[in-house]
Structure formats: structure tokens, C-alpha cells
Amino acid sequence: MATEPIDLEAAGLCTDAYGSAIGMPQLCDAWFGNQIFWLLIALVVIYFILSRIALPRISAILSERQGTITNDIAAAEDLKAKAHEAEAAYDQALVDARLEAGRIIDAAKADMKADLEAAMKKADAEIAVRTAEGEKAIAEIREGALAAVKDVAKDTAKEIVAAMGGNADARTVTAAVNARMKG
Amino acid sequence: MADETQVVVATGADVAHGAESGLVFHPMDQFLVKPIFGQAGDPVFWYTPTNVTLWLGLSVLAIFALMVLTTSRRSVIPSRGQSVAELSYGFIYKMVEDITGKEGLKYFPYIMTLFMFIVSANFLGLLPTAFTTTSHIAVTAVLGFAVFFAVTILGFVLNGFGFLGLFWVSSAPLALRPILAVIELISYFVRPVSHSIRLAGNMMAGHAVIKVFAAFAAVTAVAPVSVAAIAAIYGLEVLVCFIQAYVFTILTCVYLKDALHPAH
Predict the structure, then answer these.
(1) How many helices (DSSP H) and strands (DSSP E) are in chain B?
(2) CB B119, CB B261: distance < 8 Å
(3) Which domain range does residue A136 map to?
């Protein structure tokens, strides 16, 4: 803003003697040509900057980013699928191991059962042998005892008969004892 | 004779200048077009480099810095500057696509040019002592009429006389249609005027109001209020700068849509 009086003729009718605005400088038609001329130049320059350099470049950046994101998502999905596969394989291995363990346990059980049965049989057989031996011994003892009882009974009967004053016939006494023993 | 008028004008100017009182109001002086070189009061011809030239050039540089320099590394993970450039690209691209459809996308560079010019000129104008090129009706009228003529010519080239269907509201009752056609026609021709005056008026009003409050800051008693008011209006102007650029651009898209799809 000039403070000195200026040449009004040259400045046109839009400023006063001090260079201040009269009314709205926007409506000063003496300046329209200048503004329009420089504006058109500026617009053309901006248009070429944008359409030749900036917009294709930004568009390329954006599509490159989109591509990168898409690729990354695809890679992530691949990795996810691989992880699922690995998990499935792990589960399978776990199931297999369980089955194997079960099989081993069953086999061990069967072995043990077989061993046990064999041992039981052996033991039973031995027990049977021993029992038979025992019974035989008992039978012998019983027979021995019976014979002894017969002898003792004959002797006792002979003695009793003699004591009572009878003449004990050995054959008669024996027959009598045998008859009694049977009864 | 010449001296006498000089004196009369000078005294009138003295009063306007408030040379005697404390208050000096020159809210419109910021809009004066002045040659950059030479002295104040030198004649302004159409080719003279003026403050208009300077601030238009700064707008061009700002756009170059924002859209070209920040994107020079073309990084997939953008820097702050690059994301602003991408954001403005995506903002206008989506606007054009949403309003005009896929067919409008080939006019995207023109609309982007308009938006980037208006938004950068508006924001540069907010710098103290700056000259706001978009506050001048000569500038916005060029933009507004350029859009108007481009859309009208494009409408006739693409649709032939079918473009006139824009004024024939086929969804209205037949009796009303001629009346509506007249209204539509008037509103169509008012478009470039409202389009350009809306922008220039908004920019001019805000800057002038700030300047008026700035003049009051010379009075000690009201200076704090005045400074607070300047800050508040400045904040409002920041919003207005973007919103007016947005409004201008979106209206351009709407007009372009009329040219591409004139049927109601």
C-alpha cells in the first residue's frame, strides 16, 4: 500500500491517490486481462504437471500397493494351508502312535495271559500228581491201619477168650473177627 | 484542472484513510493487483508480472511439491507427504467415479487440476500478507465458465440434441413440463455465475473480515477481543478454504454428470 500520492492516470480508476482500493478491486476491469492471462498459464502448467507426472505416478503406486497386498494375502493363505496340513499330519501321527501303543499293550496282555495259562496248567498238573501221591499214601496208611486193627482185634479177642477160660481156637477167632469187621 | 481534481481526491482519500483518527480501515487493499517489479501505481498490462502472477506461480510450485516431489520415492509404504498426495488423488478419483460413473473417469485429470489449483490457492491465500488469487471474480469466473462451456459442448457432442432432454423433465406431468423447462434453462445458465461467485465471495469475505478485525487491534481496549476474533475467523477460513474447493469440485462433477447422462 503506497503512502505517497501516485499517478492516477497510469494506475487506472481502481485505486485512489494513496494507492488504496476504491470499492472492490475484484470489479476493476483494468486487471481482468492480467489475471485471466496468468491464470490460464498456471492452469495449463498444473494440468501438465498432474496429467503427465503426478497422476500416472500415484496411480502406479496405488496399483503396486494393491498388488503387493494381494500377493501378501495369497502368501498368507498358502502358509495357513500349510499350517493346516502340518496340523493334520501331526494329528495323524498322534492317532497312529495311539493305535500302535494299543496294539503293543494288547500283544503284551495276550503274551502274559498265555504265560499265565501255561504256568497254571503246569501248576495244576503238579498239584494233581502230588494229590495222587498223597491219596496213595493215605490209602497205604489206611490199609496198614486196617491190617493192624485186624491183628490187634484177633490178639485181643484171643486174650479175652483165654482170660474167660475158654480155649480159643485161632481159626474160629479169626473168622469171627473178620465177620465183625465186615459188618 | 488536473491539480484540482488531485487535491479533491486526495482530501477524500485522507478521510477514508483516517489519517487523523486512530482507526485505519483498508480491508480491500489486500485484493489490489500490483506489478511485482517497478513502483506502485505502475500500469498493469495483461502481460505484466503482478502479485497475481507470483501467487499463481506459488500455487503451481505447491502443487508440484505436494504431488510430484513427495511421490518421487514411489514407496509402497508411503511417507507423510506421499500419503497426502495419495489421499487427495483418491478423494477426487472416488468423487468423480461416484458421481459421474466410470465414463467420467477420463475427465479426472481436468477435475483434479481444478481441485488442486483451488485448494492450494485458497490455502496459500491464508498466509499473512498473501494475495488470494481465488478471491478474484476474474479468476473464478474463468474456472466457472470453463466448466460451463466444457460441460455444454461435451453434452451436445456426446448426446446431440438429446442433451436438451436435460431441460425436459419427463417424470413431471406434461402440463408442467414447459414451465419446468424454463426454470431448468434459467438455472442452467445461472450455474457458472453462482459457481464462480460462490468461491470468490467466500474467499473475499473471510479475508476482508479478518482485515477489519485486524484494524480494530490498533485500539488497545478492544485489541484482545480483536485478536481472538481474528484467530477464530482464521480457523473458520481454514475450513472454508477446503470446503469451497470441495464444493466447486463436486459441483463440477455434478454438471459433468448432466453432460454424460442428460436424462432425468
Answers:
(1) 7, 0
(2) no
(3) 8-182
pLDDT the model gives residue B112: 95
Whole-angstrom CA distances from B49 to A11, A38, B46, B162 are: 15, 8, 9, 45
Give the model confidence (pLDDT) of A2-45 as tens digits. 445 555 544 456 777 777 887 788 888 888 889 999 999 999 99
- Radius of gyration of chain B measured on its C-alpha atoms: 23
CA-atom Rg of chain A in angstroms = 68
Q: Find, in chain A, the residue whose alpha carbon is nearest to that of B77.
A: A65
- The answer to whether the Cβ–Cβ distance between A34 and B33 falls below 8 Å is yes
Residue A3, domain member (yes or no): no
Q: What is the pLDDT of residue B2?
A: 40
Chosen for mutation from A6, A43, A69, A70 (greatest number of chain B CBs closer than 10 Å) is A43
What is the complex's ipTM, to 2 decimals? 0.86
Backbone angles phi, psi at B170, to 5 degrees: -70, -15
Q: Tell me whether residues A61 and B64 touch, CB distance under 8 A.
A: no
Distance CA B51, CA A135 (A): 141
Give the count of domains, chain A.
1
Interface of B with A in 112-141 (CB under 8 A): 112-113, 116-117, 133, 135-139
For residue B59, the chain A residue with the least C-alpha distance is: A42
Q: What is the pLDDT of residue B13?
A: 44
Assign B40 to helix, strand or coil: coil
- B34: cell is 500490483
